[in-house]
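@channel sequence for tomorrow's demo:
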Amino acid sequence: MRSSADLTAHLLGGSPPPGIPPELTIRRRWWDRVGLRLLVLVVAAATVPTLILGLLVIRSGRGSLEREVLTRNREVARWGVEKVESFVGNALENMRLLINLTDLDRPDRRNPRPDLSLFLSFMEDVKEISLLDAQGREHLRLSEETIYTSRDLGDQAGSPAFEAARGGQVYIGPVTTSPHAEPFVTLALPIENLAEGRLAAVLVAQLNLKRLWEEVLSFQVGKSGYLYLVNPEGVLIAHPDFSLVLAGKEMRGSPAVRRFLRGGEDLPPAGAEGYPNYQGQEVQGVFARSAKLGWGVIVEQPLAEALANVRQTKVETLVMLLNTLLVAVLVGALAARYVTRPVRALAAGAAAVGAGDLSHTIPVRGRDELAEVAGTFNWMTANLHQNFQGLRTLLESTTRLAGAARREEVLRLVVEETPRVVGEVRCAVLLLEATWDGRGPAHARIWKAGGAETEATLTLWPDQDHPVVRALSYRDVETTRAGMLGLTLETDDPEAPALVVPLLAGREAQGALLVVRSAGGQGFGEAEVMLCRALANHLSIALQLREAHEHLVRSEKLRAVGEIAAGVAHNFNNILGAILARAQLLQNLSDPAEVHRGLAIIERAALDGGGIVRRLQNSAQLQLATPLGLVALNKVVEDALELTRPRWKDAAELRGAPITIEVALRRLPAVLGEPMELREVMTNIILNAVDAMPDGGRLRIEGAVRDRWVTLAFRDTGSGMSEDVRRRIFDPFFTTKGARGTGLGMSLSYAIVKRHGGEILVESAVGQGTSVHLHLPVGPAPAPPLPVAERAQAPSIPRRILVVDDDAYVRGLLSDVLTSLGHRVEAVDSGPQALGCFAAEAFDMVITDLGMELSGRDVARAIKARSPHTPVILVTGWAADLDEAELREAGVDLLLAKPFQVSEVREVVDRVNECRTGRRN
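structure tokens (generated this afternoon):
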């Protein structure tokens, strides 16, 4: 063993002693030193946040400042729009005032010149005004600068101003420039003769925009910003550089103008860069739109001016970053020097422990965290030696447990080895009789020292405040006292420390390991808890092996459930085929007796189909879905032959391969079973025999009674099967029919016969046909029927009934049945329509389907809210899955399960009538 002093000297810079691993003797490069890395870390921790904060401040400051400038400029643009609209609107209002105060609608009766002259002198911005008659001819034109005579008057019938006014609209024309380079806009207002209801004249004015432009364009935007106006086509109509207006410059190259023309946002999108203006400056622009004139007011401001404060922020951030970097370097150097010296000593101690010196200690200096680390290291080395001995003992104990094959031996070894591993303790194993899910009471059995198993001494309840309950509920070790366990484990001190360690199978609790310290002992430390956990885990693995077989059995049962469900669906297809074929045959029959017999077969098949659906819904249970009763096998065989007649008679004769059925049954005793399921078994056997005789043949059905067993034999002259096929005939999904078969018929038949307590055997050989033997136990003798007082069925009281169902077939069927029983029926196909009918008319009862867009529950609630005493009957195919309390709360009085019969509909309606009569009495 190496000297710890030699190791310390090596790690602090001395020469390495012999035998040290190579990774401890490599030479470090300067960038591999912890001190340098710590220095870099301190510098980075101090400067990176400052840098990020500065960048965020710059970015957020730029964004907020930019948004503030844009918002302010948008308000300037809106101010410009208001000024323009106010200026033009004021001129239009004065023109309307002139029309209302004068007789301009009758220019031929009164000379309008004085009125127009007065208006022209009053409106200094209107430089010219003219009056057009109803045909567009100028009646009068006045100007401040030009004197017009009658020879100067013209026909304005085709001008845009007259066309707009003739249509009853106010006309605001495009901006034009006069010979004196002054902007003008043409305004036109229609003058109507109210008495005659026609256009009498049109007043046209030329409005000078020079004063408006001077006021709007002179507005100062920042230090060097400006605004200008464009028409709906993006052409300048006002700009500080009037030469651009005179040139008719289009401003479509400006992003702000493009947004205006597209009808986009008046502000640029966030993060948008600036763009060059007409002078090449980087600017950002906003606009405001005049809804009345269609003009746009554009405000642009140089980007450098708008973001001048951002540059100052950048300079301040850089200065702060440099100062932070300088301070961080100094602090990092001191921290690296302070930390690396004790780290080197700690590394030397770790190397000594790794070399096997578990008694090595390092000096403890000071009272800071580094001194605490040194003290913890010394405590760790002391405990390592103790725990090493405990782990060695645990390894020996688990090796013995691994060699135990039987469950009882494993339990005995755990009880005996726990004191050796943990120390002076007493031990017991508590096993639950079933895996506990924490939702009900559970009983447990106790294994104590010597392997003696006691009777159940502990009953666990989910809400019980007991250490075992808490440990099993939270899947964790519970620390308690011996007296709290309800057993002393051969210690007289009820206050002795105790542990409850759960035995887990995955996440499920199957028991607990109980460990009690001897009287007067100290509590359990972390190492002892860890050792108890290890023992409990090993015990759990051993106990899970015993559960493996039962788990496989449960898996097989679940697989059988799936096979049964698929088989039920397979037989449901057989019944549908029988119904379809029988219905097609009835179309060609005229004999009432034959038609009646065929309808009876269809009814029986439909009832069997309903039973199949109910059994498919209950396929998760491995027992019969309906109560067993006495079944007459002769009747079952007869029904099965009738159901399959279209296959063995009609279809066989059609293809020229007749099949002969021979029935040799004497009067067989009744068996205890379910007729529908036994009929399915015989239907499957008959159809398999028909498929095995594609060229025709004979099927003989024989019956016999021996002791308390009834035997049915089905012998066909078909192709037979090989021994390998015969052995697999009851395997699920095994078929020799290719795509025509599912491989579920005989598998389901086997399951049904087994559930009836019987046997099914198959004898066959290739080319020699097949014999299927059913052995069923004879049922008990039927009890004499109890006397029943006969009474004539009273006719139903006619009622007004509302039927609600979105399925046309079910809705029509219910309506026909109820009508045949003497009731008056109103049928609708939706919940909202039903509520409308109920609000408009009184009904004695409501029958509604469950599954609709507005569900039957909602319809029931609405009906009960309006009329609490109106009965509501719910029709559903899932009656077994519904919560009765929830239905009662929704207002449902009775259930009618699909598929229903006429008698069931009569019974439900009569029950409602009886309830209503009882309430009335």
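heads up for whoever presents: Residues 813 and 885 are 29 Å apart (CA to CA).
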